[in-house]
Each structure stands twice: as C-alpha cells, then as structure tokens.
Amino acid sequence: MDQDAYRKTYERINERACLFEKCLFAGHAGCSRSERFNLAEREGIHCDSDSAQAQCAELLVLLRHHSRFALKTQDGNGVLNHAQALRIQVGGLRGLDQVVEQRREPVRFVPDVHALVCRARARFGTLERLPFNRIIQQIAAFKGRRG
Question: Which listed site, 7, 70, 93, 100, has its alpha carbon 20 to 30 Å from 82?
Fold first, then answer.
C-alpha cells in the first residue's frame, strides 16, 4: 500500500485519533480512553471519547504555545518534526504529572493520560491555569533516544 493511500485510509477509519499517540507508542504513557487497532501491518491508536480527545487537544495547544522557546520555534502553528512532537507529549505529561501530584522528580511512565488531565482540571480549575513554567522544564529536559 502506498503512503498516500495508507494515510487516507488511516484517517478515514480513525476519525478520533489519539493525540498522544507518539507518547503511547514510545512506551512513555498509557490511557484508559485509548484503543489500539491494526491497519496494513501497522498499529494505530484511537480515542474512544470526544470529550477526552477535546481535553487532550486543549492541553497540547497550550503545551505547544508555552514550549516555543524550549523547542526553539517561533511559529506556534508550524509543523513539528517527530522529535519535537514527542518532546511536547512526553515532557508535557511528565511535567503535568509532577505538578498535579506534587512530586519532586518526574515519573518515567504516566499510566493514564485521561485521568491525569481530569485531575489537572479538577486541581487548577482550567488547563489555562496550569503552572506552565514548571511543566515546560520537563519538555526542555526530555531528550528522547540518542542516535
């Protein structure tokens, strides 16, 4: 299957894609709202809830906006490469977990993205009120795999 056909089919059957898919695939997090599926010998992750996906979308927009300096990007809307997207997802969740759970050190694995985002919203009222200066430290610290 060529890449364009695969991408179109993937988007058609996965209308509500997991927005933290890179992080989940890399083994840095899990999510109670995620469902894995296979397509043409590849795996995808689907979100089973419109409201959960909307919360994740809101969080990612905020993380991306606040991490522009850490990622050395000027445009908050441009396309991110895989490493940058993974840094936002993994570092953002680790930082979020650290502030929500009041940990001294970040966790290596976030067991449930949806539950964490719900706890963050309950603790801070809205995601806009998160202490992004502390969360962004984990985005800046995450380096991923070394080549």
Answer: 100
First to last CA, the chain: 29
Tokens 């759970």 — which residue?
Answer: 101
C-alpha pair distances (Å), 28 with each of 5, 6, 15, 22, 97: 29, 26, 23, 9, 12
Does residue 75 form part of some domain? yes
Answer yes or no: is 16 within a domain.
yes
Per-residue pLDDT of the chain (147 residues; tens, 9 = 90+): 577 776 776 677 778 999 999 999 999 999 999 999 887 778 889 999 999 999 999 999 999 999 988 877 766 567 888 999 999 999 999 999 999 999 999 999 999 999 999 999 999 999 999 999 999 999 999 987 755
Question: Can you tell me the distance from the alpha carbon of 99 to that of 130, in angstroms, rounded to the nearest whole number?
Answer: 8
Number of domains the chain contains: 1
Kind and range of the H or E run holding 44: strand 42-47
70 and 140 in contact (C-beta within 8 Å)? yes
Opening angle at CA 109, ends 86 and 35, nearest 5 = 75
Range of the domain at 57: 3-141
